[in-house]
Structures are given as structure tokens and as C-alpha cells.
Amino acid sequence: MFNTSFCYNTGDINVGCSFVDNVKVGGIAGLSSKAVKNCYNTGNVETIIYNDGTSIAGSIVGFAGGISALLSCYNIGNVNGNSSSGLIAQVENENTFVADNCFMADHNESNGYGESLSTDFMKSDEFVAMLNKYDNYYKKDVEPFVNDGYPIIDTEKIPAFDIDGTIGVEESVTETNIEIYPNPASDFVRVSTVNGQQSTVRVYNILGMLVGTRLATSATNEIEINVSEYNPGIYFINISNEESNVTKKIVVE
After folding, report:
1. How far apart, in whole angstroms, are the C-alpha atoms of residue 34 and residue 96?
2. pLDDT, tens digit, for every residue of 124-180?
3. CA distances from residue 126 to 131, 151, 249 in whole angstroms, order as listed
4. Which residues pair with 71 in a beta bridge?
């Protein structure tokens, strides 16, 4: 799945199965390994397994793998899975996942990577302002309502874009003796590749976009990356060579 933005679901999703185990269902996507931003779900999401198997249901995403993020999303509907549920029901690797500025109606028992809020508050101007933390794509739903008073996407502000198959980051595969410090950082980050192999070092922002590339040769076990011009926030540093592919999370202040 590519980076996903400006999507919403208002219908109920009910999945019943008697012969498949480990079913993953989401209001926007069942599986995601990229960034999901500015999306919402108002329908009910439920999985029913008629055997001894497990099911997970997420109001936005069922299962998040690889380097992934959930940003400025909200859910109103009821979410039920027999194993786990919430905004995102299950995350493969907490070290390569970020959830921020996401919200769940408080009638759900599990908020799953989000903050629980009352449905009355989620119809307020203040909630719209909260959702617009990163940009300004949400607006209030006013009469005649199209979303029962809950915030909607301002489609007139959505920029034109092309789908690029290079967007996103491959999953980390193995953990090796690689050090990244300091973390958090404000000026420079040092990457130590103690195995002495030539490695490619890539820096990605929280949306999976490549923002920097360096080459660490076998003669230099340590390289320095200037992060002073990066916007504050969370980034991922990917170090890959013939033997390994490692991704680590850093914070730029």
C-alpha cells in the first residue's frame, strides 16, 4: 500500500469467516506499510470468526508493518475484533511505527494508538483545529450535514499529485552492530557501521519520503549527517549493505 491521505469510510464493514485464521480488517486498509494521514472512519468495523482463529479490527488500519505512520486520523464507529481492536489493531514493529494526533470516540473500549474523546467534542471547532496540527485539510461539517456534524476533508485544498512507486521504505530485516547517536539530535547524527562494510545510509521523514542519502565506505566506520536544517520531528535512518538492512528511528529537535 502506498502513502494514503484524504480517504474516508462511512459504511459498516462486517467480515465473517469460518475457514481462515488471523483475519485483518481496517476501515481504510486491512494492511499498511506506509503512512496514513488525514483519514477518518465513521462506520462500524467488525470481524467474526466461526472457529478457533483470531481476528483483528482497526477503525483505520488492521495491521501496520514495515516503516509506517498514522497521523491526524479519527474514528467514530464501533470497532470489534476477537483479538485486538482500535485505530490500528496491531503493529509489527513499534520501533518503526509512529502514531500522532489520532482520536477515537470514547464509546469504544480500546482506542488503539489514539486519544479517546467524546462525540460531542469531536463535532466542535476545537477538534477541527486539533486535526489540522500538520496542515489544514479538515473543515467543520455544517448544515446541511454530510457527515453528521463530524469534521470532513476540504476537497478544494487537496493538491494534485502523481503516484510514485518509489515512495515509502522497505521493511527492516535484521539488527546488526550499528549505532546512531546522539538521539534526540539537533545538529548532527553520527552513524557507526562497525562491520566495516560499504553501506548506503538513507534518511526518511515520517511520511516515508527520502530526505537524504550518504555512502559509508569500508574505510570509514562512522559518518556524520547534518540534521540542523530538518524540521523537528521523527525520522528513520536506513542502513543497508550486502548482509543486512536495518532501520532505526531518531528524533530531531
Report:
1. 10
2. 999 999 999 989 999 999 999 999 999 999 988 887 554 443 334 444 334 456 788
3. 9, 11, 31
4. 37, 100
> Rounded to whole angstroms, how far apart are CA atoms 2 and 32?
8
Closest CA relative to residue 101, chosen from 89, 113, 112: 113
Query: CA dist 213 to 96, 98, 164, 202, 210, Å?
Result: 19, 22, 19, 4, 8
Q: Which residue type occupies 156?
A: E
Give the residue from 122, 120, 125, 114 showing the smallest Cα distance to 91: 114
What is the residue-wise DSSP string for 71-135? Answer: ES-EE-S-EE-SSEEEEEEEES-GGGEEEES-EEETTSS--SSSEEE-TTGGGSHHHHHHHTTSS
Strands 103-105 and 68-71: unpaired
* Nearest CA-CA partner of 46 in 74, 23, 72: 23
Query: 240: helix, coil or strand?
Result: strand
DSSP-derived pairing of the beta strands 138-139 and 199-204? unpaired
pTM above 0.70, yes or no: yes
Is the distance from CB of 88 to CB of 99 less than 8 angstroms? yes
Q: Whole-angstrom Cα distance, residue 150 to residue 140?
A: 7
Selection from 84, 81, 87, 83 nearest residue 99 by Cα: 87
Q: Which domains does the chain have, with CATH numbers?
A: 4-157 (no CATH), 178-252 (2.60.40.1930)
